[in-house]
Amino acid sequence: MSIRNQLASTFMDNLIICSGLNTIVIDHTKNLKSTLKNLRDNYGFIMLLDIIAVDKSNNNKESEPKDKRFQLNYILLNMEEHFRLKVQINFNTDNNEVLPSSTDLWTNAHWCEREVWEMFGVSFGEKSEERLLTPNNLIGHPLRKDFELSLSDETVVEKDSFQRNLGLPKYKENLIENVSIGPIHPGFKGSMKMNFEVEGDYILRSKLEMGYLHRGIEKSCEQMLYGQISTMTDKLNFFSSAANSVGWCKAVEALAGIDIPDRAKALRMVICEFARVSDHAQCIASTIKATGIFEGVQIARRIVDKVAKTFYALNGSSKGNHLSTIGGLNFTLPVGWINDSLSELKQINTLCNELSFHLNRANFWKERLQTAPLNAYEAIDLGVTGPNLRSCGVNYDIRKVSPYYFYKDVDFEIPLGINGDSYDRFLVRVEEMRQSLEIISQVLDSLPSGKVKVENSEIDLNLLRFAPEKSSIYSMSEAVNGELGFYIESDGSNRPYRVKIKAPSFFSAQAFSRMLPGTRLDNCMVSLSSMNIVVGELDR
Amino acid sequence: MILERELYKSISTTRAILKSLRAYSFTSLRILIKGKGSILKNDKERGLPQLIDPSSCSGCNDCAVICPTACLDVKIDKEKLSSMILDVKKCIFCGLCKEVCDPQVIELSDYRSLASHGESSWKIDLVEKNEQA
Asked: Interface pTM (ipTM) of the complex?
């Protein structure tokens, strides 16, 4: 019996299909915790992908129950059956109701709940009431529809980042020091702050602080047109812009029901894989830099340059910005580009071999990179996706399990690691680069002909007038760092009602702060760059 | 001005200054004689937007609406485009203005503002610039 049937027999009429996913509707907050526990224990939903909150107060529709202001969506994943489930609940917070926290079911729910509390004022108990992304002197909850910006004048007294450990013997207290790195550091991709409690060289406790970029991307999306937002999503993971906007355009097309031409699909795959090669090379370059080897950085940078050259020939932007648009692509393929990029592929492959020749067997490199191990159980519990999850030995890749575009027709393999330490992450990334090169050459060999943009569609594709019907969608794609999901809710106008970005780095960062205790302080930059945490993605 | 550190190290300071002055005057003379050269139109270039034919502008204001960073300020006088002020600091070269423009008045040039871009020209009037060219 498939899992869909099993769920249908248990939940009966409460199981519906909504926003592209099977959805279980819960009518009362009392049943929330027991249902989630049941789903995790008996139906194998071992990974929580995200918690999405929506403020329905401004939604002038008759069908929605007016008295329920907030909606929470838990997106769960069953990794055996590759089945995604949405658990939806509508509720009010008039009597300062506190929702049951699900941190004991999935550890990664902690940051999700903190985000929901600071953005919507929905509390999950005392632990969740701590600011994560917004500054401390902000009054109110930014993503509520009635929010107006106001800052308090009171100077906020900075708390100590760690509470005193009372169980510690007195003589040890003098040996413990607090060290912090950031907000600006050449090893960070963005700006954030890492606080450590160290004893000698070893880290006892660690804490990540973020919110220094002040992007407010989700709030800005509510005031922007659908076509404009792809310029914002370009800057999510700024080392692989092309893959991010492909994810956004795919989500909007799924929302509006647009089927793009085959040539556009194939070319989108090509630019996604090029972005993956460039981002992995960038990640490896920063890892090598953190260990202090010079030569490897040069090789990895040369790969990045080669990809930048191919992107530049497409539309003049060397980072791959503004390549895809809603309904297709923004560029026409220049004459001779395919030949040029095939010869570039050959050179990139040589550089990949050179990289592994220089590094794979070097004892120094192996020793330095055996840091911050993550086992498969922890990784799933912390919601880590992408190459970081695959390096722990979990075979999960959206390109394989729920293929989009032509990924089911191309031949490629998924590299897996064993220990999940930095060395495995490096090996997985290098091998993924090779597989990406293979995908690109296969697609370019048999590129479909035709248009690159939808021309006669039922819906008006003009950037100013594009307005999908009232509906919602959760659409995901395998971005460079893992699953990049977009939850879009539209109310029929030309601006989205709510956009939620499920960024892979957000969960990697949460896992990273839990991986560190026990490792040496000088290894922390190596582990950070091997996790490839890009702050542009996790900061909202 | 060319101020190379290596240059100062290898030869004495006075000689180095003279050398850089000579190089400076040579380049400026060459620009004076030959001119900067006309801007070659290349549609694979991505830079600040420029106007091709301001007289055919329909005055729909679409380009100002679609701009994600709100860097364009369009003024229409008697159904004719009187001024179009571009904030160079804000422009991200996304090309959306070119895409929505129905009469195809706007296109992207290959000129990008760099750190050397003068403070006096942070706001450019595109109509004026088009007349000068």
From this structure: 0.80
